[in-house]
Amino acid sequence: MKRWRALVFVPLVFLGFAGFYTLFIAEDLYTSRATLSLASGQVQAQLEQRIQLQQEGPLPFEAVRAVAFAEEIIRGVWEELRKEGLLPPRWQDAGTLRGFERMASDFGIKEQASRRSNDTVRQALIVEMSVQAPSPKLASRAANAWVERVLVAVNQVPYQKFDSSLAHLQESLDEAEKNYQEAQARWLEVSRRSTLASDRLELDQLIQERVRLDQALSSLRADLAATRARLESYGAALQSQKNRLSANAASIELVLMNRSFEQAQKSLQQETERLRRSYEQVASELEAFRKRERIPELQVELDRLVARLGEIATQQSALATQIAQKRAELREKEALLLREPRLIEVLREVVADPLVATAVGQDAWPSLESLRLKSQELSPVYTSLFSQVAALKAELSGLESAERALREERARTQSRVEVIRTQLAAQMREKERITLEHAARKAAYESVKARFEQLYRLSPQPFSFEVSNPEYLRLRSAITDAEAERAAQESRMQQMESRLTWINERIVALRNRVAQAQIEQDNAEKALGLSKDSYLALLQKKTDLQIQAAASQSTAQVLVRAYPVYQKTSPNRLLILTAALMVGFLVGLIYVFIAEAVQVPGPSGKGVYGA
Fold first, then answer.
1. Is there a smaller number of Cβ atoms within 10 Å at the N or the C end of the chain?
2. What is the pTM of this model?
3. In the chain, what are the domain boundaries?
4. Residues near 591 by Cβ (< 8 Å), separated by ≥ 6?
């Protein structure tokens, strides 16, 4: 029976210890709860150039729990309470255990409910967050601080998935912008030192001149062949006349022959004088043309205008890039502006006014103490975004005006370039005509002059065997004229052939220069176009990502804030005492069974301890 007394004694001992713990050791705790709701959000996605809305479910409960018990969240709540001087002893540092770790043991979170749509996408998640603290106000304060930080962190989750993409895209965008600027600089340098336009103009003019020279040379060769044939026929006829004449001509015939010779000299002298006057006239025309010639000035002006066209093209390209950037930024700001409410409701207590507060303190209007006024004000965020949008529109308008001005200047410069090219081509054709005519008349004059000097040096002795045959004299005069004409034609043909040779060499050189310049310009333009397309594509992709990030709606909100609850939740004294009583009874019962099992029977059949 002594062993069975343990069934009473042991439970009483456990009950005593439990009572002592609940009365003197255990700390009273109060629980405060806040409710957080996470709804499914809509995210804008650009698919095939169309803006579409995609349904995106809320975060799962495990993710919310991981965010809620993250070290930065718990530490932030602990630091906030520490700064306010609200940390109780149970949440302060104790040895190696840090205070926020001890505080986290009093925080709890559980899933209340979730709702799913027909397409198995969860539409809402309701989470209850609880905090145990030694006082109701501290519990509600800690719970509200905790739920606010969790709310901010959860709402930032949709944006965090864009951070890595935006960071990587920004690196690619910086590299693309650098390549674009380098391509612009190379293209500008090529445009500045390129003589492609002037070389093409000169090449076209030389080709046209070569065609004209070929035609003139063909005609001149035909004329020269006809002159040579005429000389041969004259020579044959003259030889025939010589064969008929007698070697002993009469003296009267010699006199007549000498007179004819003098007439031929006089006629050749007149022809020489006529060619000299013609040559001097062309020389005066050439001198007058050189005085009024503007080919160097026009060429300099043309080069300047071509360089200006290159600068205008570079500025237009830079303006197009800036306009694209500003338009992308404007679209982004307008998207943010559409999402931001214009007016916000402001709830103010009437006693916020010092005069009203003084009156209420003097019991003048006691009914105003709990009165609140609701008013609407312009959202400062909306005002700031509106100002930014207006500034961007003004800047974009200025850039577009500058682009229009550049287009107009380019049109004017292009028309001026065409006028100068026309004037330059006309003057070059006139110069070519006068130069060729001057060279031809000079050659004819020098040839006839040489023939006249040769004839003047002759004496009448070679004609002593000749007679004053009219046909013979006509043939001699015709041969003299034909030889002068042949000399002039040969001289002109040599000049034209030398000019044609130089033109062909110049055309080959210009074609090589034009081909190299065209290849260089094409490569520069191709590199510029590729770098520009790559830069604009990356810029558009960045804008789309920013719009998508801005359009990701906040999915979390506080449904119910935590309030002080003045009902103790710990310790549960009745539960502790009942548990202590049951544990004591079980321990006593186990003790009795063990004692009965190990009992050694005595000689009289009783145990060692007796009955």
1. N
2. 0.42
3. 1-26+572-611, 195-332+388-511+545-549
4. 3, 6, 10
